[in-house]
Design a protein that fits this description.
Rossmann fold; seven-stranded antiparallel sheet; Protein Transport Mog1p, Chain A; disordered N terminus
Length: 476
């Protein structure tokens, strides 16, 4: 396995974005379909990999150079014995190229790895999987680091036997949820703007850092390997509700989520690879993300510290009063098709964890930051109180029949603004009691001054930690 890497083909050219037009390559023998930006070169050969004459048949190696990047698809079959575990292959690449895993997940029972590595000054990014002793590898090479915008359309075009091999925790068909970070910057991001690829648009959403809490984000050297974050910002409801006109957008929800992500990574010690980040997420994407967090907690043997942040619409069922998070593809007429909060809490507490903290900048009365949902019909409902289990603390933006409102001058929800302000001034070292009091006191007063409406944030905790949660420290 140590020599598998020698089968890669790569060229050295400058970086440029992948064209929207492409050539679709089909290999009927292996059920492979992949879209290239132009017609690829095709080679087929058998290459010895060691002195024992064990062979890998490189059944198809396609390489093209397009728009300044080299794209390669290799389909390799072990001709003698088992291919070996994906983990072994990854270790081989780590030793050979000092590879760093970018993303690892499982789809339909198959482990899939996406990782970057550099060798000889050449930057490469690969996606690799093994199905029925056949290794499928997609690779992009460049003299400089390709951005996700360049790579993902190519990576996410792969199909094997009609199944798309794509990251299930994103919206790969629309490239909605990937940050395009400047590769010349370090992990502690100091750029003024971050662009996120926008669904159905070439323009993209721009996180402009226009508020004081978006700048001078505290940089802590703390890294907590068992700390994870799930962050969702649902803003663009109107373009997804094609049959309705009542579901308007949630002002600044994408800004809220983007800023919280920066604090999670830079201030609260969440490793960037431990962040699941969704903008304008559908029901499927949200359910997949919650299931992933459930599996993370399960597989960390009680050591996981989980932060969940949500900004978007919430709604109660008119009959049961049960509370729901509303994905982009769910309307106010069908709240029961959304994400039931009790089900989410159950997933987060099904397995033991060190701590789970949830921040929800949404209301569940039928109101909204503007209008839409039940507020458009002049109805408000007092939602049913949630009962919590496990080591769970929930910070909510409002109480009872209140709405969760925006702070337009700051381009954030008012709850999120004061949450971030406290993280900024405390550098993340703040007790839950201090944080709760700060948010409550500031939001309660400023909401009346700014929006002429009452909004009183509250904290809900499980009975098992009712005597200790106030002493928790967000950074410790």
């Amino acid at each position: 396995m140590k020599k598998v890497a020698y089968l890669l083909l790569f060229a050295l050219m400058s970086m440029k974005a992948l064209s929207q037009e492409g050539f679709i390559y089909n290999n009927s023998q292996y059920g492979v379909e992949v879209k290239f930006p132009s017609k690829p070169e095709l080679t087929s050969k058998k290459t010895p990999i060691d002195k024992k004459s064990e062979y890998i048949s490189q059944v198809a190696s396609l390489m093209i150079v397009s728009a300044g990047l080299t794209y390669n698809l290799a389909i390799m079959e072990k001709s003698n014995g088992d291919m070996g575990k994906v983990d072994d292959l990854v270790e081989t690449y780590k030793k050979t190229f000092k590879a760093s895993i970018k993303r690892e997940y499982e789809l339909f029972g198959t482990k899939i790895l996406e990782y970057d590595w550099t060798t000889g000054g050449h930057y490469m990014r690969s996606k690799i999987m093994i199905i029925n002793k056949v290794l499928y590898q997609l690779m992009v090479a460049s003299q400089s680091s390709p951005t996700d915008k360049d790579v993902l359309p190519f990576f996410n075009s792969l199909k094997i036997n009609g199944t798309s091999i794509r990251d299930p925790f994103t919206d790969p068909g629309k490239f909605t949820n990937f940050a395009i970070d400047d590769p010349t910057k370090t992990k502690k991001d100091t750029i003024k703007q971050i662009v996120y690829v926008n669904s159905g648009s070439n323009q993209g959403y721009l996180f402009e850092r226009s508020s004081d809490v978006d700048k001078n984000i505290p940089q802590n050297s703390l890294i907590k390997p068992y700390r994870f974050a799930l962050i969702i910002g649902n803003e663009d409801y109107s373009s997804h509700q094609v049959d309705l006109n009542s579901e308007i957008n949630v002002d600044f929800a994408r800004n809220d989520a983007s800023a919280f992500k920066e604090y999670a990574i830079n201030t609260l010690g969440v490793p960037e690879k431990n962040v699941v980040f969704l903008l304008d997420a559908t029901t499927g994407l949200m359910n997949q993300a919650f299931s992933k967090m459930n599996l993370i907690i399960k597989n960390t043997q009680g050591n996981a510290e989980v932060l969940v942040y949500y900004a978007g619409h919430g709604l109660p069922d008119e009959v049961t009063k049960e509370t729901y998070l509303i994905p982009l593809d769910i309307s106010g007429k069908n709240a029961g098709d959304g994400i039931r909060l009790q089900n989410l809490y159950a997933k987060l507490t099904e397995f033991p964890s060190k701590r789970v903290t949830v921040f929800i900048d949404a209301c569940f009365s039928g109101g909204a930051r503007n209008q839409g949902l039940l507020a458009a019909r002049g109805i408000k409902i007092r939602p049913k109180d949630d009962l919590l289990n496990g080591n769970l603390v929930v910070f909510t933006a409002s109480s009872g029949e209140q709405s969760s409102l925006s702070y337009k001058e700051k381009h954030h929800g008012i709850f999120t603004y004061y949450l971030l302000q406290k993280l900024q001034e405390s550098k993340g070292s703040v007790s839950y009691n201090e944080l709760s009091k700060y948010i409550h006191d500031n939001v309660s007063l400023q909401s009346v001054l700014i929006n002429d409406k009452e909004q009183s944030p509250k904290v809900i905790v499980s009975n098992s930690i009712s005597s200790e949660w106030e002493n928790y420290d967000l950074i410790k």
